[in-house]
Design a protein that fits this description.
The chain is α/β, with parallel strands linked by helices. 36% of the residues lie in helices and 15% in strands. The protein folds into 2 domains: 3-146 and 302-317, Aspartate/ornithine carbamoyltransferase (Rossmann fold, 3-Layer(aba) Sandwich); 150-298, Rossmann fold (3-Layer(aba) Sandwich). It has a 5-stranded parallel beta sheet with strand order 1-7-6-2-3, sandwiched between helices. The protein has a 5-stranded parallel beta sheet with strand order 10-9-8-11-12. Strands 4-5 form a two-stranded parallel sheet. The structure holds N-acetyl-L-norvaline and phosphoric acid mono(formamide)ester (CP).
């Protein structure tokens, strides 16, 4: 594997989950692969889980790891070509990328959607510039429109906890006070569409996701109907995708918050969220603290999804 930006890069998904579960049983078995190799993790946005789990995954594989927070201590980067750089940005991404690549063998990139230009966000201009100009293998640590390390960890978690061969998995929008990207739900939908699950998306009108990721999955605007009989409830807020509201909050409808009453509609279902989560908006305290909450095992599996991806990249470098 050379690049990891979406589910397509994993090939056979069942095989990938199997490999991840094997790695989980003995996460130090591949320490030789990363010997004298350096992982560079470049963050244009904040992170707790991705930062820790991906660094740990690299270390499990015997790599040295460098973390660069571009907005804390590095020069502010211009990303557009053809501009006169007389503002607050001191360096251009097109120099910064080849410089960064001098000091590493593998690069992870986190760069959120800006919501300024839907086309640019959905063309994934930042991560694609890393792919084009670094000369190194590149993987997504959540980019403008996708978070495939999260969705891979979510699938591993579902695989570990499912009680029936083909569980019902519901991705539901929930209210939030700030505009958030569609990256997490996009990737979750992309993975669930490939997995052996009965997948349903529930969101208020005006919040339909991009068809490239929904891919004909069932979509309903009635959350209660979707939750009926669900084995897994995956809550997430996202801002509107459709024009003219791209990147905007158009509803804060608190009747979509996942509460004990909502979970009572399910088949004793599990609650999932990628974290970070705002309690009281997305989910109530009792649900997230309850016995059916998978948020911590899900976060723990981020180490395993990252390690599986980096292992495959390292194997490609041998
Ligand atoms: C981000 C998002 O919704 O994409 C990161 C989630 C992993 N969340 C926030 O910015 C709160
Ligand atoms: N779930 C996730 O990616 O969390 P962070 O933003 O903290 O990395």
């Amino acid at each position: 594997m050379r690049y990891y930006t979406g589910v397509k890069d994993l090939g056979n998904l069942q095989e990938a989950v199997k490999e991840a579960l094997e790695i989980k049983k003995n996460r130090f078995a591949y320490k030789h692969l990363g010997e004298n190799k350096t992982l560079l993790m470049v963050f244009f946005n904040n992170s707790l889980r991705t930062r820790l789990s991906t660094q740990k995954a690299g270390m499990n594989l015997g790599m040295n790891t460098i973390v660069l927070d571009v907005n804390q201590g590095a020069w502010k980067l211009e990303t557009e070509r053809g501009v006169i750089m007389d503002g607050d940005k001191s360096e251009h991404l097109l120099e910064a990328i080849p410089v960064m690549s001098q000091f590493c063998d593998v690069i992870g990139v986190r760069s959120f959607a800006t919501f300024e230009d839907k086309q640019k966000d959905y063309e994934e201009t930042i991560v694609n510039q890393f792919i084009k100009y670094s000369g190194k293998p590149v993987f997504s640590m959540e980019t403008a429109t996708c978070h495939p390390l999260q969705a891979f960890a979510d699938l591993i978690t579902i695989e570990e906890h499912k009680k029936v061969a083909r569980p019902k998995v519901v991705l539901t929008w929930a209210p939030h006070c700030r505009a958030l990207p569609q990256a997490v739900p996009n990737s979750f939908a992309d993975f669930m569409n490939e997995a052996d699950v009965d997948f349903v998306i529930a969101n208020p009108e005006g919040y339909d996701l991009c068809e490239k990721f929904v891919r004909g999955a069932k979509v309903t605007h009635n959350q209660d109907e979707a939750l009926a009989g669900a084995d897994f409830v995956y809550a997430k807020n996202w801002s509107a995708y459709d024009d003219p509201n791209y990147g905007k909050i158009i509803s804060k409808d608190m009747s979509w918050t996942i509460s004990a009453e909502k979970m009572a509609l399910t088949n004793n279902g599990y609650f999932m969220h990628c974290l970070p989560v705002r309690r009281g908006l997305i989910v109530t305290d009792d649900v997230i603290e309850g016995p059916n909450s998978l948020v911590i095992p899900e976060a723990a599996n981020r180490e395993i999804s990252a390690q599986t991806v980096i292992k495959r990249i390292l194997e490609g470098l041998q």
